[in-house]
Design goal:
It is a single chain. Strands 2-1-3-5-4 form a five-stranded mixed sheet, sandwiched between helices. It is built from seven helices and five strands; from the N terminus they run αβαααβαβαββα. The protein has 194 residues and is of the alpha/beta class. The chain has a single domain, classed as Uracil-DNA glycosylase-like domain (Uracil-DNA Glycosylase, subunit E). It holds the Pfam family UDG. Its EC number is 3.2.2.-.
Length: 194
């Protein structure tokens, strides 16, 4: 799907629905959707985002999911069958996550905790330590299992898959996501040979 810069701007402030199946083992929470993500109505839908390649390398999914033109129904069902859910801390689209205010992140964190209480996943993984620190007022938090739960559910902080998070590689993202998936009891596939 080809979308020009001016057209992308029209998606600012837009939203997309959470990806939730009947039983969510692992709920991934991104920071907020990007403009292209809302345009294609697919979480992590920007070309070059490493979320789906990392899921594949981690063995969380059995194939490389291509979201260039949005996610297919078959891939959506595969994620749900694996017990994978996807949401965001802040539901509204911006061009970059650093456009969000601390107040928006804090309000989003409160809303996420309530959503977790309703969805009842086995584990929550927030993707982005900087956003987590702001949203949950934990300025010294580090990645990994957090000492506190969210909505009564074990909480992990894992790296954000955005290309702007340049110090993370596809391999390091896959390793972090696999660790969280194991904690959530997600059935894993053998990772592909790379």
């Amino acid at each position: 799907m080809r979308v020009g810069r001016a057209e992308l701007e029209s998606f600012r402030g837009g939203t997309l629905p959470d990806l939730l199946g009947p039983k969510v083992r692992l709920l991934f929470a991104g920071i907020n959707p990007g403009l292209r993500t809302v345009a294609v109505q697919t979480h992590f839908g920007r070309p070059g985002n490493r979320f789906y390649p990392a899921l594949y390398r981690a063995g969380i999914v059995d194939r490389l999911i291509d979201v260039t033109d949005g996610i297919s129904a078959a891939d959506t069902e595969h994620l749900k069958a694996q017990g994978i859910g996807i949401t965001n801390i802040v539901p509204v689209a911006t061009a970059r996550a650093d456009e969000l205010t601390t107040e928006e992140l804090v309000a989003g964190g409160e809303a996420l905790a309530e959503r977790v209480r309703l969805v009842k996943p086995d584990v929550v993984a927030i993707l982005g330590v900087t956003a987590y620190r702001a949203a949950f007022r934990r300025p010294k938090a580090v990645a990994g299992r957090q000492p506190e739960d969210i909505g009564g559910v074990p909480l992990w902080v894992a790296p954000n898959p955005s290309g702007l998070n340049a110090h993370e590689t596809a391999a390091s993202l896959a390793e972090a996501y696999r660790e969280v998936a194991l904690a959530a009891g997600v059935p894993l596939f053998p990772p592909p040979e790379v």
